[in-house]
Design goal:
By secondary structure, the protein is of the alpha+beta class. It has 2 domains: 43-134, Phosphorylase Kinase, domain 1 (2-Layer Sandwich); 139-357, Transferase(Phosphotransferase) domain 1 (Transferase(Phosphotransferase), domain 1, Orthogonal Bundle), CATH 1.10.510.10. It has 14 helices and 11 strands. The chain has helices at residues 32-41, 94-108, 141-148, 153-172, 233-236, 243-259, 270-279, 285-288, 296-305, 317-330, 343-346, 353-360, 366-370, 379-423, and strands spanning 50-51, 55-63, 67-74, 80-86, 118-123, 129-134, 139-140, 175-176, 185-190, 193-199, 206-207. The strands form 3 sheets. Strands 1-2-3-4-6-5 form a 6-stranded antiparallel beta sheet, with helices on one face. It has a 3-stranded antiparallel beta sheet with strand order 7-9-10. It has a two-stranded antiparallel ribbon with strand order 8-11. A hairpin with a 3-residue loop joins β2 (55-63) and β3 (67-74). The longest helix has 45 residues, at 379-423. The radius of gyration is 31 Å and the shape is globular.
């Protein structure tokens, strides 16, 4: 599949081209089940091939612009596996080969239960690069969204909690996913956990060094990789990324699952969508899906994830997981109380220019912010002192103006007397 505008290779089912931003589709599989069945009937040269005497390829599961995923079996154990192969013609691109190798190394070092397990990463004598992973048999969030969205906010946060576990480990190793989207998150049914989360596809993950600097770049200058609807503002602007970029993307997913729509549904086309991601503040989910009875604390957590400035988001995935756990356990979150909400949680939409100017002014002193709120006085008590202060101010202003005119009159009289004496 290729972009009709710039001819870049694309993953099936994506909505926007990651290179030029052209809208490709609405994300639904073209042709539905009939097209999928016809697709499976196309013969594939890899079916039946044994990779390094360890894995046999049995069926094709899907294909993207750079590689394909097959279902297979590990010969020594009989275990079912998913085999990701890089297209042979892509091995001529050093950057793609390096990216594929990096994905293999990254995946082999991630052990969290909510990250897809990687068994092996190798290259055949013919030069075919492959990654052997566990075969997932559940549903993707993409399937859940189109079948069930909007879903309950508690169910959504239980999914987010498990995502935090996977991403916290990745971030601790200096790995930013950069391409979290519904298609890359699977839900498996397991004993005691009907929706066990698995995160996959770290193919464009960004590796951070221990000092916080970026690892060598594997994309062309000016090229932005990811899925436009789920990219953080700093990712859109090509800035340095850390784990808080993934937090923003999790916020988009949470918003989409609970409301049945993206945060900026009125943004038509890539330019408008980018502008909205950079400048606009989404409406609280509770005002979009009012029948769901989403509590204010849930609104606050989602909007904090979606803060434009990464400094206003949760510090890391553990911080987010703690907030979600508190909400699910007690029905409350301390951060949503007075003084604890993020700016995004208190502004329902794009602020008018005057409001933006007001927001840009320096914050009041800490003492003023921390001052305890006092109960309002009775109406008559409020009016009395205010009226007294107003009367005193009005009286003072009147006396001041009278004194000024008196002084000016004396000056004029003195001037006239002086002139008369000079003429004599």
């Amino acid at each position: 599949m290729r972009c009709p505008l710039c001819n870049s290779a694309l993953e099936p089912g994506i909505r926007f081209c990651g290179v030029c931003g052209h809208q490709v589709s609405d994300g639904r599989p073209p042709g539905g089940d009939v097209a999928a069945e016809a697709y499976e009937e196309v013969p594939d040269p890899y079916i039946g091939v044994v990779l390094n005497n360890r894995f046999v390829i049995e069926s094709k599961l899907g294909e993207g612009g750079f590689g394909a995923v097959y279902g297979g079996k590990q010969l020594g154990t009989g275990r079912k596996v998913a085999l990701k192969l890089l297209h042979p013609e892509m091995t001529q691109d050093d950057n793609l080969v390096a990216r594929f190798r990096r994905e293999g190394l990254v995946m082999c070092n991630l052990k969290d239960a909510h990250t897809v397990t990687t068994y092996d990463f190798d290259q055949t004598t013919e030069g075919t690069l492959f990654i052997a992973m566990e075969l997932l048999e559940g549903r993707s969030l993409h399937d859940v969204f189109y079948a069930e969205a909007p879903i309950g906010w508690k169910r959504m946060f239980r999914i987010v909690m498990q995502m935090c576990s996977s991403l916290a480990e990745a971030h601790a190793q200096g790995i930013v996913h950069r391409d979290l989207k519904p298609e890359n998150i699977y839900l498996e049914s397991r004993p005691g956990e009907p929706e066990f989360v698995k995160i996959l596809d770290f193919g464009i993950a960004k590796v951070m060094r221990g000092d916080g600097s970026q690892a060598p770049q594997l994309t062309a200058t000016g090229q932005t990789l990811g899925t436009l609807e789920y990219m953080s503002p700093e990712q859109l602007m090509g800035k340095a990324l850390d784990g808080r970029s993934d937090i923003y993307t999790v916020g988009v997913l949470a918003y989409e699952l609970t409301t049945g729509r993206l945060p900026f549904p009125d943004a038509k086309g890539p330019a408008a969508l980018i502008t909205a991601q950079l400048r606009e503040v989404p409406a609280p989910p509770s005002t979009v899906n009012m029948s769901a009875r989403i509590p204010p604390a849930a609104d606050a957590i989602i909007l904090k994830m979606l803060a434009k400035d990464k400094a206003d988001r949760f510090a890391d995935m553990n911080d987010l997981r703690k907030a979600v756990g508190e909400l699910l356990e007690s029905g409350h979150w301390h951060g949503s109380r007075a003084g604890g909400e993020s700016p995004a949680a208190t502004v329902p939409g794009p602020a008018p220019v005057a409001v933006q100017a007001q927001m840009a002014r320096p914050a009041p002193p800490a003492a003023a912010v921390a001052a305890p709120a006092q109960a309002p006085a009775p109406a008559h008590a409020q009016r009395g002192p205010a009226a007294g202060r107003g009367a005193a101010a009005g009286s003072g202003a009147t006396l001041g103006r009278a004194w000024l005119w008196f002084v000016l009159a004396l000056i004029c009289v003195g001037g006239l007397v002086g002139a008369a004496l000079a003429l004599r």
